[in-house]
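Bug #77: duplicate submission created two jobs. Keeping one. Sequence:
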Amino acid sequence: MEQNQNFSDNYCFACGTDNPRGLRLTFAFEGERLVTRTTLAREYQGYPGTVHGGIVTTLLDETMANYMTMRGEKAVTGRIEVRYRRPTPVGAALTVAGWLEKRRGDYVTMKAEIRLDDGTVTAEGTATMAVVEKLDETGTEA
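Kept job's structure:
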């Protein structure tokens, strides 16, 4: 199942298809992990040849949030921690995966990572998210 989640106008910077400057990410479950694949252009560069750290964080955060959405719950990030293990190169194929680590009521701990094709992990994220509403099968409030 592959889909973009949007709650209003499909203009989300990360997953909206109508945003001309956005990342236009699409997601699909592979087992218990939600995955997106992308190659980022120079427009998303920080240091020469390296994806900007804020964009790296966006990739991780968006994957974790969409995991919850695609499981039927809208969740917002309360806290995120990112560990930058290696520079994430511009122009390289990236695989971003997110998964649920644990749940306590309406609070979840999520994990995500960015990998290069050779398996190198460039960044890892951990987030505490709060579930704010249940969604129906169309991605809208239930």
